[in-house]
Amino acid sequence: MLYALKSSSRWLSAVCVVTVLAACGKNPAPQEPVRAVKVLTVGESGSSMDFEFSGEVRARVESTLGFRVAGKLLSRPAEIGQRVKPGALLAQLDPQDYRVTADAAAAQLVAAQSNREVAGADFKRYQDLYAQGFISVAELQRREAAYISAQAQWKQAQAQSSVQGNQSGYTRLLADGAGIVTSVDASAGQVVAPGQPVVRLALDGPRDVVFSVAEDKLGLLKTGTRVKVRQWVDGQVLEAVVRDVSASADSVTRSFLVKAALPKDAQPVLGSTVTVHLLLGDVSDVKTIKLPTSALRMEAGAASVWVLDPSTMTVKAQAVQVNTADGNDAVVTSGLQNGDQVVLSGVHVLTPGQKVSVFGAVK
């Protein structure tokens, strides 16, 4: 019986030791999954410098009109899209105060004119008395000074009356030329300040296409460059000539404004959207590689791609230099060679040396 207990105790100890040793052992690390990727076999080719920009048709001359005087806006007959003739009434201020001031200035002018006539007649009479020897030179000079003062007061009143009359007329905002109203910035009942924009008028005449370009494309557009302009509304294509390139970038978009003159006989709808097409021709001597933007990885401001090693079926990161964009493709100028296989999708979930399988290849 004692022997049996000892054998059982030894067996249990052995089982415990085996269990503890088994518990202390490490689990084998799981193998990294093999990801399926789509690759593109790249090759250099000559590039065609072809660029498109979205633009807008505008009048060559656009006037932002406002009143020269302040007041309450009584009416604003002008409406957006309305065609107006030279001298047409665009807006009207309340002229009552200015009319009263003009009437007061006119009354002062009448009084000054009367004083001038009295002083003139008095001076002439004293000239005759001096010629007869009845008055002294000093008395004649006093009468002359009074006449000169009355003359100056009359001229001052005349100028003041003219100014007040002009201000009364400034309560009417008139079109300074034939054109189309493109914007209204004030409504009846509003009190406006001198110079505050009320109506924007696009004058008849030459028209431009206005569009913005990024800084890296600015060198392609110079004064005299010819571009093709396609209208969205009917697809008609016109030829325009760049006449002005902004010297400074927009503070918000950081792009540069370009104006291209349309032919004189072309009259596209103002404000319509057009596509500006710039074709610089084939530059086959400049070899480039084009990649879909989905293949690019951006880290710390640098671009890179995953390149497949067919011998090991693993990927490695390769830094590239992107020069510009061509549609939805990125133009790569360095970092890749002919025949390199570049991963196109899932680039953000791969790691260096990771094994992959190819489920789709693009040539």
Key words describing this protein structure:
363 residues; alpha+beta; conserved putative lor/sdh protein from methanococcus maripaludis s2 fold; Elongation Factor Tu (Ef-tu), domain 3; Helix Hairpins; 3 domains; six-stranded antiparallel beta barrel; 25% helix
Give a brief rundown of this model:
The chain has 363 residues and is of the alpha+beta class. It has helices at 2-24, 96-131, 137-169; strands at residues 35-41, 45-59, 62-65, 71-75, 83-84, 89-93, 172-174, 179-184, 191-192, 199-203, 207-213, 226-231, 237-245, 256-261, 273-292, 297-299, 302-309, 314-326, 329-334, 341-343, 356-362.
Molecular structure report:
This protein folds into 3 domains: 35-47 and 284-362, conserved putative lor/sdh protein from methanococcus maripaludis s2 fold (Beta Barrel); 52-60 and 203-282, Elongation Factor Tu (Ef-tu), domain 3, CATH 2.40.30.170; 65-174, Helix hairpin bin (Helix Hairpins). The protein has 3 helices and 21 strands. The radius of gyration is 44 Å and the shape is rod-shaped. The chain has helices spanning 2-24, 96-131, 137-169; strands at 35-41, 45-59, 62-65, 71-75, 83-84, 89-93, 172-174, 179-184, 191-192, 199-203, 207-213, 226-231, 237-245, 256-261, 273-292, 297-299, 302-309, 314-326, 329-334, 341-343, 356-362. A 6-stranded antiparallel barrel has the order 2-11-14-13-12-15. The model is unreliable at 1-8 and 14-23 (pLDDT under 50). Helix 2 (96-131) runs antiparallel to helix 3. The relative contact order is 0.19. With 363 residues, the protein is α+β, with helices and mostly antiparallel strands.
